[in-house]
Amino acid sequence: MPNPISRLSTLSRRRRARLPFMVRPTYPREMRAWSLMALALGAVEGGVAGVLVKTSFAGHVDPGWLNTAVALVTGAPAFANITSFLWAGFAQGREKIRLLLWMMVATMAGLILMAAAPLNGPGLLLITLGAILSRCCWAGVTTLRATVWRANFPRSQMGNMAGRLVRAMTLIMGATGILLGVALASWPDSFRVIYPALALLGLTGAITFSRLRMRRQKILLRRERELERREPHSVGLLAMWHVLRTDHDFRRYMRLMFSFGGGNLTMTPILILIMSERYALPQLQQMLITSSIPLLLMTLTIPLWSRMLDRGHVIHYRARQGWAFVVTVAVYFLAVALDLPALFWLGSVLHGIGMAGGTLGWNLGHHDFAAPEKASLYMGIHVTLTGVRGLIAPLFGVWLYQFIEHHWPGMGRFVLTIPLIVTTFGAWGFVSMSRELKARTAPS
């Protein structure tokens, strides 16, 4: 069987001649680095880590604490981003590649903690903290990564270039989830060996990335330092508050993202609990539905979304892309409302299609609002608010599910009504904002 990383590298070499001249030196190295790190990142993907915790610790700890841990681990990819404002402030005026290297190393350390967790109460705490540590450090990577991409890729090709990199990462992350599911099905403690091995591969990718050069970095650092001298509070919470107070369009975009993204974040941990407790689906099937299939489907549809994103403002893009998530939540709701668990597989496919477009918009959308020297700040705001909803939404959903199940057994599954409503509200808000933006920019 061919090595997927070697195959991706071969494809990268074949396509190198078709890349814009300015990105040819950086793209192959980025592809190798992100592909290796994706192997490790797939182990702390929300669906994979959530299923691992739920199935491994069931019967060893209190069910209430276990479900809370599932909510935290599942929501960790989102709520860990609340640390983004710290990363954005710390990175201002500092070399981005070097900082990214140390963030990647710390991400891998979290996997080691997870592998060492015993199956008891303290172990549940340790594996939860390990997942959160990895995702907090990865939040710093995503905050600064977009700045590097903006420097190395032209705006007209940014969606295409980022799409290729994200597509490779999601393909490998999806494959990691499948391999973990198969290994855990035959040997429940296999994660104690697999997680350290994946961390070692991730470290190899981090070292590869550290050899990358960032174009015009000295100019960017000079601008950031000048901005810091001119505006001492140009980073941090005060700077974020100033942007949200003065940039009306970006503030409204963030408000809609809070509703839209909150619905999606509420959905996944509830699905894990329903599939495990109501339908007793095997661990592998749970990982496939919540993580691997959506990630693999992303690789097929990212090119379509990237071309759409390159054609115009992110608001117009979200006005169309957002409905893919609405349909996804609706299918999952029908699956539990009609007691048709077979619909979980259709929902998983649709989730992957929606995630493909959502990932591109999430990584690049802020550039349509920010000046170059404020790109990290705007991304910091976006990522930090993602963290806030990532902390609130999964816990709210799980606690509400447990409350309803306790008082009205079998009715907890209808909590999926909430993500359906709020996701629809967010998608319709993007449509309304898109119409207003078109009217405002139309020639008089």
- Which regions are unreliable across 5 or more consecutive residues at pLDDT < 50? 4-13, 19-23
Domain module count: 1
Q: Approximately how much beta-strand content do the residues carry?
A: under 5%
Q: What is the highest CATH level, the class?
A: Mainly Alpha
**Separate helix tally:** 17
| Average of pLDDT | 83
Overall spatial form = globular
For the largest beta-sheet, the strand count, sense and barrel status come to: none
The CATH superfamily bears the name MFS general substrate transporter like domains
Element-by-element helix/strand order: HHHHHHHHHHHHHHHHH
Number of strands: 0
Radius of gyration: 21 Å
Q: What percent of the residues sit in helical stretches (DSSP H or I)?
A: over 70%
Structural class: mainly alpha
N- and C-termini, Cα separation: 60 Å
CATH fold description: Growth Hormone, Chain: A
Judging by the overall fold, what is the CATH architecture? Up-down Bundle
